[in-house]
Amino acid sequence: MSGQKRLVIVGNSEIACMAYEYFTHDSDYEVAGFAIGKDFVQDSTFCGLPVNEIEEITSVYPPDQFDAFVAIGDSKLNRVRREYFDLCKSKGYKLASFVSSDAFVWRNVKVGENCFIFEANILQPFVEVGDNTIIWSGNHIGHRTIIEEDVFIASQVVISGYCRIGRWSFLGVNVAVANNVTIGADNFIGMGANITRNTPDNTMWRAPPSMSRDIPARKFFKVGE
User: Are residues 83 and 54 in contact, defined by beta-carbon separation less than 8 angstroms?
Assistant: First the structure.
């Protein structure tokens, strides 16, 4: 479409496919194609668009004509996404961010480059989101919270006010972070964990795992009786 900004998506996995969907149907970008390292090219097309080796990306998608978006998940605590982010920057690309039109983002929220903010998120006043961060759907980010670079936040996470989420960290589904808590760098916080105090760098947290009961479900609910 004439007048649209043009975009190349870096990646060829499910997250890249989702990025294609969101940028195509909820932004002013036109996605022209995909790129990934030559060792990871699986097919010549993806989502109906060409896939190119990132080593040759500037000849196909010149950075003065295209922006880039790195659509890669939390592999190696977000290091892989950062590697491609830095590579695109070194090649002269502006890194686009996507913020869903169905997210509530207060007027003074700051969002960095190459962020992916899905639908139904609430970002309250004075929140800051660092570069290269993914915030999946349905989260609450409380006022004056700072999310550092290279973070991945899954769905239904509640982060209270005045928190800080350290670089490289991953927060799983249904994590809750209490008010005024700092999460250290390189934290992996598993599904359902409640964090009520500051955490040191390079730590893993999990909620108590659910245990099955001895009684079968159909017997407990009198199914078939």
Answer: no
Q: What is the pLDDT of residues 51-60, one digit of tens each?
A: 999 999 999 9
In the chain, the amino acid numbered 27 is S
Taking the CA atoms of 36, 37, 40 and 43 in sequence, report the sign of the dihedral they define: positive
The pLDDT of residue 1 is: 43
User: How far is the C-alpha of 181 from the C-alpha of 194, rounded, in Å?
Assistant: 11
CATH number of 5-90: 3.40.50.20
Chain region(s) in the chain for CATH 2.160.10.10: 97-204
Are 56 and 34 in contact by the 8 Å Cβ rule? The answer is no
Q: Which residues of 187-219 are buried (b: 16+ CB within 10 A; e: fewer)?
A: bbbbebbebeeebeeeeebeeeeeeeeeeeeee
Q: What is the largest CA-CA distance in the chain?
A: 71
